[in-house]
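S., here's the first fold you wanted:
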Amino acid sequence: MRTILAGMLGLAILMVGCATQLTPALLESADYGELNPQYKEAIKAHMQALFYDPEGARYRYVKEPVKGFAYVPNDAPKLEFGYIVEAHINAKNRLGAYTGEERYQFLVKKDTAWMLHEWTSSGTTNDALAEIAAVKSWAQKK
């Protein structure tokens, strides 16, 4: 268990060390692309391999997609811009019973969807700009 936690901590440190720094200029000039009207199909395609009965999964989209970013897994974590989508998914187990809704977040760009985890560094563009402004304001007071 300690080995797994140490490995995850090391991966998180590596990801932060290699990550592109967010700046207001980067956020404002980022290419978010147009929201694909078929983004729900991209999410379903991404989740298909994770469910025992993917056809029986029920998707409920809670909020409208918003512009956002995430460091998505690649050979090295890569900063991607797109749209953050929140979905609640209720899937069946091996006995055919629904297990209850679980909350998922995705970053969607064009026809690709990435599932975001708790440890994935991500956020909405508006929140990031507000946070950068707050840090600048705090630093000016010092």
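And the second, which I think is the more interesting of the pair:
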Amino acid sequence: TGTETITQSGELVAHWMMDEGSGNILIDASGYSNDASTVASPPWVVGTSGMALQLNGRKQYATAPDNASLDITGPITLATWIKADARDHQYLLHKAKNNSVDGYELSLTRAGLILFRFNQATSGEDLRVNSSTLYPADGSTWIHVAATYDGTTARLYVNGVEDRTKILDSTPSINTNDLPLAIGAQHDGFRSFKGAMDDARVYNKALTAEEIYALASNQSASSLALTNQKEIKTFEKEDNLTVFPNPFDSDIKIDFKLLKESAYKVGLYNSKGDLIKELKKGRSEADIMNTIEFDGSDLPKGLYLVRLQTNKEIKTFKLIKR
């Protein structure tokens, strides 16, 4: 959960947090309703924050139906956490069809490289950038991978650091299609990923290096799951919000303090961003620890979000009921 001040400008069009813990739906927290359906019942495992989806490399994956918000023709960012179990040709985020339908993709190669590519069916490998870093495939190492395209330059990032850049000879647009966006494979299960995935995102802008670093540092809050505001800022690093235990079964304790005196309110939300309960509101002096205790035993299993909000800032914490 994020704590660095990062501005989100509303360009997050898909965000699968993968914290549901059960069922076959990955809720899209972006507000664009690009929920994805899993195929062949992949299980949930412990992720980088909360839960993650474990894929077996044998046609376990998920797909989000085609939507205008996913038919991106210009600047784009694809990002996700992965923990690979094997090196092979594997698709991570894929809205195209190999050799026949143009689109965009973030993928892995058998040689151990990460790649970003678009319009492969008509342009071959001209619009492709490979990483210089090899991805680990030991089944135990998480890495954050991201790709951006700003209309002229494609960039790959590994663990928040720019790894490879390619300046394109022209300024091509990404060709759209009516295919689903697939997570962990092609839409038909081709080149399935073997390993775990967490926090997959699609933006219709090229994030900056600072924003990519924030994602890879788990510093970007999930505030867009809760609001349609154009600009959201999370609290600074010195602010404190802790929730214990997490995951929880019944009783929950929330501790928080603010850097500056301010009015505040704390709410509990479901993964769709609907308010379940207002836990507390009031006014706090700076550097005073505030405590909330409540009984969550009657809540259904799954993902919840605790939101601490002042007049100008929001901090969000993911909470799992098991």
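Why I say that: The radius of gyration is 20 Å. The CA atoms of residues 66 and 249 lie 37 Å apart.

Talk tomorrow,
H.
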